[in-house]
Amino acid sequence: MDRLYKKQVEEYLTNYGKLVFISGARQVGKTTILKQVIKPNPNSIYLNWDYLEDRNKILHKHTELFKNLRSTIFDKKPCLILDEIHKYKDWKNLVKGFYDKFGENIEFIITGSAKLNIYKKGSDSLMGRYISLTVHPLSVS
Questions:
Q1: What is the pTM of this model?
Q2: Does domain 2-135 have CATH number 3.40.50.1820?
């Protein structure tokens, strides 16, 4: 199941050139999917909002972060993954700013719980900049 989502995320990054939003309930495998996506790309950076050091990088050291992502040359575009970023109250404007400035040169994956669905409102500042993927729990009957 995770491989199917991995393939879909890779396809979205390759073919659409937009932010990829991965949402779903807790414990459905979003982080596992991310680890599969970034494993073949050594120029990926994974940051988790729940981890204080990562949160500090996102809010206060992002200039250095993007400089490091852009300065490394690999076959694949660098990828920045922001996990659980929706817990930051102004996350949409932060992500919009990052994407508008660096989106041509860097891939972005944003993940979060089902609450991430708040981005679907029509007046959203991210409108037209993302493609979404919802991860569903696997049920065994």
A1: 0.80
A2: no
